[in-house]
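Incident review: delayed structure delivery

Summary: a single-chain prediction request sat in the queue longer than the usual turnaround. Root cause was a stuck worker, restarted by the on-call engineer. No data loss occurred. The affected request and its eventual output are reproduced below so the record is complete for anyone auditing the incident later.

Affected input:
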Amino acid sequence: MSLAAPEPSAPPAMELRPRPASLADLFWSFTWLALQGFGGVLAVVQRELVEKKQWLTHEEFVEDWSVAQVLPGPNVINLGLMIGDRYFGLPGAMVTLAGLLLFPLLLVLTIAAIFAGISDYPAAQGALRGMGAVAAGLITATGFKLVAALKKNVMGMTVCWLAAAATFACIAIVRIPLATVLLLVGGASCVWAYRQLGLIQNQAAGK
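Output delivered after worker restart:
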């Protein structure tokens, strides 16, 4: 009789869902994602991971992206590290990081060397302004696409909209520093979510 402990198995719901087939699949998937992410990375990440590969649901993506935004560092790097670690542990996180940085770094260095010679031309400056407008449009469209995921949020749709409006007003209109907004609006949202979770647990315990 073998005394070895059985390997932990993933929950049935996770086993039935699509997932990276291997470390190589993880590397090339995030490489392709990063190569598309010029400016509008949020739109690319949501399309690739949620709509195409279905590694995350809309609700999971909103939750993971929220954590990635709060943590220090680039959002997509944080998200990639979480997903890589979730499926393959530390090797998965490192492979994801390599996929996000290796080929995009080489491409950006090449583009930077080329652009250095034409950066003073009006056409090049106009192209950059145009790409900025497109990136803003991509992010806005993705934000509206993810609104439906808030219906299942424990805070409630009304409170989510109020938090979003308060964040926009503080940053875009009042120009309060991001760290202060995260502390005030984010802290208040966390307190409200904790309260709502407590109410749900009390209701479940009373049944």
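Verification: The chain has eight helices and no strands.
Action items: add queue-age alerting; document worker restart procedure.
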